[in-house]
Amino acid sequence: MKKIKKVSDSITETVHVVRSTHINGVGRLFGGSLMQWIDEISGVVAVRHTGLGVTTAAIDNLNFKEGAYQNDTIVLIGKVTYVGHTSLEVKVDAFVEDKEGNRKNINSAYVVMVAIDDDGKPLEVPGLDIETEEERLEWEAGEKRYNLRKKRYKEGF
Ligand SMILES: CC(C)(COP(=O)(O)OP(=O)(O)OC[C@H]1O[C@@H](n2cnc3c(N)ncnc32)[C@H](O)[C@@H]1OP(=O)(O)O)[C@@H](O)C(=O)NCCC(=O)NCCS
Hints:
By secondary structure, this protein is an alpha+beta fold. The chain has a single domain (4-155), classed as Hotdog Thioesterase (Thiol Ester Dehydrase, Chain A). It has helices at residues 7-10, 31-50, 133-155, and strands at residues 4-6, 12-17, 53-64, 73-83, 87-97, 103-116, 127-129.
């Protein structure tokens, strides 16, 4: 029988402090550093959901909304929004957290992870048990993105 997991089984939060080594030429957090953190948290979420080895197939809709600066505390939250047959979509939101604990959303991304065996062959992933209205809305939007990605891949645009 196909396994089913909840969003709450794999939701993950990571925290990074912006150091001098993460700063780009205009004094802001280098986008590539943030992309690495996004890729890492997506991998953790995907492994927690699937219990399998995973690889990143695509990063979709990566939106840099605001900059971050040295010594900022960056909080990333990753959660599964949609699952296909061998792939799953992980939404990652990145925030700057201030001293009072207020969070400002600076980036959102959807990352497509694929479960693979030791030979790199895709494996079936567990289904997703939707529990809340917010999760249902994310699932419906995720299904649209999944179908659009399939169409883009097939038609090459
Ligand atoms: C991702 C990968 C395993 C897919 O293998 P494949 O032989 O193309 O497998 P398939 O065509 O059967 O696709 C498997 C799943 O991945 C999805 N997929 C593959 N390429 C995709 C892409 N570019 N964007 C979105 N989804 C993609 C497919 O839609 C499918 O999902 P589904 O089973 O849920 O419907 C393979 O392309 C790969 O290894 N890529 C390199 C990944 C990597 O090294 N990442 C690290 C970057 S340094």
